[in-house]
Amino acid sequence: MITLLKNGRIYDPAHGKDGVNADIYIRDGRIVAKPADYEKVDQTYDLSGKVVMAGAIDMHSHIGGGKVNIARMMLPEYQEKHQQKQAQELKGLSEPEAHICSPHCSHHATPSTTDTGFRYIEMGYTAAFEPAISPVNARQAHLEMGDTPMIDKGGYAMLGNDDYFLRLLADKKDQKAINDYVAWILHATQAIGIKVVNPGGINAFKFNQRRLNLDENNVHYQVSAREILQSLSRAVHDLGIAKPLHVHCNNLGAAGNFATTLDTMSASSGLPMHLTHIQFHSYGTEGDKKFSSAAAQIAEALNKNKHITADVGQILFGQTVTASGDSMMQHLNAKHANPKKSVIMDIECDAGCGVLPFKYRDQNYVNALQWAIGLELFLSVEDPWRIFLTTDHPNGAPFTSYPHLIRLLMDKAFRNEAFAKLNLDAQAMSNLTSLEREYSLYEIAIMTRAGAGKLIGLNDRGHLGIGAAADITVYTDQTDREAMFARPDYVFKNGELVVRNGSVVKVVWGVTHTAKPAFDIGVEKDLKDYFDRYQTMQLDNFKISNDEISSDGRGQVVTHQNNKE
Amino acid sequence: MNNQNHNAVPLNATCPACGLLCDDVTLSLTPELSLQNGCTKGIHFFEDAFNTSASASPLLAGKSTNLETAINAAAEILANSKQALFAGLGTEVQGMRNIMSLAKKTNATLDHIHSESTVSNTRTMQNSGWLTTTLAEVKNRADVILAIGTDITSTHPRFFEKLAWNTDSLFDKPSPELIFLGAPEASAKENAAPDGKEPTIIPAKITQLPEVINALNSLLNGKKINVETVAGIPTNTLISLIEKLRTAKYAVIVWSASALKIPHAELTIQSIVQLISKLNENSRAAGLPLNSGDGDSSVNNVSTWLSGYPTRSRFNNGIPVYDTYHFATAKQLASCDALLWISTFNPYPAPNTQAPVIVIGHPDTKFERMPDVFIPVGIPGVDHNGQMFRMDSSITLPLKKLRDTNLPGLSEVIGKIEAKLSNRMIDGTAA
User: Fold this and answer.
1) Which residue in A245, A475, B220, B404 is deepest, having the highest Cβ count within 10 Å?
2) A144 shares contact with chain B (CB less than 8 Å)
3) Within the 249-288 window of chain B, which residues sit less than 8 Å (CB to CB) from chain A?
4) A17 with A9: CB under 8 angstroms?
């Protein structure tokens, strides 16, 4: 069967197409070259004047696994509030939660797996990546992602606070041993990338350390965060994993942490490294309140260091919940929880987590400045291929607020109007209104499609070239960019029409993207001994088979070639 | 024994008999069933399981029938119900996935057999949050274990064997000091270390635990207690207990919601959680709530990611509603117009109700009053594969099929009932 998407305005940065009118042909779920004249086109969509992009890819969104489910479980009041809101909206009584959060934003911080899939696809997103899978908890993460319809999934496995890795490092094992372990973890957890959260710090918290700086040692292992970063970024590079090491820096959320962030950029010694939710790591200590924007310094460093990429982790005002692997910093921040409750866990000599509800308020100095810092970063980082649009869902805001965020980036008047309503002291501390930049549709397509697909190593997603999977989103060009991006006219998933006018018309189940670099299976000998002596589960049960993901007939594991192959 | 495969090769099993979910168990079936790394609960579970009839037949009003007829009858009952109650819910992940789907279709109320206990933990977590840990952390880090109101081993038999008396630990720590507060004395005493080290027993009645824990909180907060005893415990004993917790490198406080059969169970747990929170201002400590079993952790996790809520919940026109009080089985039995009772790990009988009853469960389920429909299904981890959450929720392990039977799995049966209901709706034959 051949489907023709006729005469759309194509934004496909991977192929340099910036609003050119062209036809797209789809056959068997893939984009194909124009068929021969004798071949029958089965259906045609006239897309004249419509904006056509690849399906969007969220490269960092907490969509499944232990801490996400803890967030759901501990906050039944959110679900209730959300349902009341939905009911109100049906009656046309909708009221935005905060005056600069528009009605398009459902602001639901803890959606069920079903809602997650539906809300993403309704916005034209066709893939999302869970950025913090603790290896021991990977099975749960995949179970939840398996119950997430409509979109493709994948995840990054967290290392660097697990005792097995820290022992290797402390025992000065060679890089090959580290590489084999990292590759083994990718296979065992069915992940596509490696993440490190507060390198060494989560582990140090279990030894009662309360902060860890980049060059400070974990008290037990006597290794520093810098050494952990070097070792892991080297492993990711040596193994040819496309996705650079995903780094959640030390000192999350702390005033003055921008210095740590700048130092972290240099820790990889020129190897690719991705700094995640960098907004939360761009704080200075200037001013009366000893909390200021260091976005300019961070952006300057990002512009200079071409091997570094970053996603922003924008905050937007309203009630949300922060769910992080960073038990150390979340424990420290628990006093700011709103409502005042927190779940903190030490997990299985492997990881940790901290879940606290949070309410970002536009009249709060710190929150207002956080909002401005995120936007300053977006507007000051020059290369859209190296900065990504995220809210660190749900930590900065729910992913459903992306259309609102896109408008803030594309519409200076709208942005400045929002800024003018913020806490006045925060306004005085931000240069946001001096930043003239407005993102173009082409740049948005880079940040949310081409760049994200390239970063993760999804060769056949994020673009509209011949052979790509036909994940395609079609919008009506509107001045109100929020309205435009909230409700695509059509979304195609693997060539099938799944959304029409912003509503799901067909339920489909996406695949799970993984990377599986080659490694020396001999590593299992030592791991088996380690598991038998210290862990509380069998090595074989730690590993997740392809069958576990595909046996329900819905899921499927897709393994991407790595750079070395 | 009715096991179908008289396998001489030992089988690796994951034991679902308690929340520890031991996956180092090896089962031999010849000459008779024996377990390596088993425990009293595990051997009992597997013996019962292997003694069940592998080809038990469904019953319709007490009379043997085939699976299809039984499924039709179950679908008929649910199609005619407006307020069905799905209770028991003794199942693992896959079973619960299907149950959720059927509940959404039938606007059913969901409650697990052990919710009465579980809810006290969940509500504490929802009210104040908590700081908890998992089994491998206990095994490698704990130097003090305080068990409140429970001897631990009567519900989780291998707890100390695996997590306290381990000779290998990552940080070369000594065996932890065990302290039992308000635990059943005789059985708590039995938990002496292999080297003969006796646990410390602080006797108290369960009903007095709220008083004792509040006193501990006061002491930790630097307040003086001007009495010589609290609930019969010398104040000095409490002072030295707090000192031990404060100076521990990693203190673990274990409680069991199911052991706290007192009116203020939830408040008591909140007090324990407060104590842990306060300890963590200066040193490290963590809580470890024991679960109650029958897949409670699995059921609550699956329910939460699929609907946003743990049990007790209900679907109302497909929209989930949460109410830990009104949706209790005991309250719903009077008003439900159909009961679907599910218990696959244990042959627990359905509670009494006037409404039509469907039982899907363990082949050996016995009945006081014959249900309208009984569909025997396989036991997860014996008759079919599955996935199950451990008591600490962080770990999910595969359950393995150990024998061939003719018994369908719960997922399959629930799926077929749902399909039958969907067909009825399409045909327009639904009442």
Assistant:
1) A245
2) yes
3) 249-250, 280, 283-284, 286
4) no
CB A445 within 8 A of CB A463: no
- Least CA distance to B125: which residue of chain A? A74
B232 contact partners, CB below 8 Å, separation of at least 6: B203, B204, B208
pTM comes to: 0.96
| Chain B residues 322-341 within an 8 A CB cutoff of chain A | 322
Under 8 Å between Cβ of A116 and A108: no
Q: CA of B251: which chain A residue's CA is closest?
A: A206
Q: Is A263 on the interface with B (CB under 8 A)?
A: no
Residues of chain B with C-beta less than 8 angstroms from the C-beta of A134: 394
Please indicate, yes or no, if residue A220 is contained in any of the structural domains: yes
DSSP, residue by residue, B362-391:
-TT---SS--SEEEE-PPBTTTB-EEEE-T
The CATH-assigned architecture of domain B119-290 is: 3-Layer(aba) Sandwich (3.40)
CB pairs under 8 A between A and B: 158
Interface ipTM above 0.90: yes
Best mutation target among A345, A509, A532, A533 (most B Cβ atoms within 10 Å) is A345
User: Of B14, B122, B135, which is closest to A73 when you measure between CB atoms?
Assistant: B122
- Using a 10 angstrom Cβ sphere, with 0-12 exposed, 13-18 middle and 19 or more buried, the burial of residue A394 is buried
Euclidean distance between CA atoms A464 and A16, whole angstroms = 11
Q: Does residue A384 belong to any structural domain of this protein?
A: yes
Say if residues B385 and B404 touch (Cβ distance below 8 Å).
Answer: no
Name the domain count of chain A: 1
Domain B56-114+294-427 indexed as CATH 3.20.20.140: no
Assess B300–A contact: CB distance below 8 Å, yes or no.
yes
Q: Does A350 touch chain B (CB under 8 A)?
A: yes
Contact criterion met (CB < 8 Å) for B308 and A76:
yes
Do A75 and B126 make contact, defined as CB atoms within 8 angstroms? yes
Q: Provide, as residue numbers in chain B, all residues whose Cβ is less than 8 Å from the Cβ of A350.
A: 136
- Within 8 A of A345 by CB-CB distance, chain B residues are 131-134, 286, 394
CATH of the domain at A117: 3.20.20
Per-residue pLDDT of chain A (565 residues; tens, 9 = 90+): 999 999 999 999 999 999 999 999 999 999 999 999 999 999 999 999 999 999 999 999 999 999 999 999 999 988 776 666 665 555 544 443 333 444 444 568 899 999 999 999 999 999 999 999 999 999 999 999 999 999 999 999 999 999 999 999 999 999 999 999 999 999 999 999 999 999 999 999 999 999 999 999 999 999 999 999 999 999 999 999 999 999 999 999 999 999 999 999 989 889 999 999 999 999 999 999 999 999 999 999 999 999 999 999 999 999 899 999 999 999 999 999 999 999 999 999 999 999 999 999 999 999 999 999 999 999 999 999 999 999 999 999 999 999 999 999 999 999 999 999 999 999 999 999 999 999 999 999 999 999 999 999 999 999 999 999 999 999 999 999 999 999 999 999 999 999 999 899 999 999 999 999 999 999 999 999 999 999 999 999 999 999 999 988 899 999 998 765 4
Q: Which residues pair with A342 in a beta bridge?
A: B129
Domain-located, residue A162: yes
How do beta strands B144-148 and B251-256 pair? parallel
What range defines the domain where residue A113 resides?
Answer: 56-402
Most A CBs within 10 A among B281, B326, B396, B414, hence the mutation to make, goes to B396
Chain A CB within 8 Å of residue B304 CB: yes
> At residue B6, what are phi and psi to the nearest 5 degrees?
-80, 70
Parse chain B into domains and list their residue ranges.
Answer: 56-114+294-427, 119-290
Q: Token pair of A180, please?
A: 């084999």
- Tell me, yes or no, if A343 comes closer than 8 A to chain B by beta carbon: yes
How far apart CA A353 and CA B286 sit, in angstroms, is: 13
Q: Taking the CB of residue A290, how many other CB atoms lie within 10 A of it? A: 11
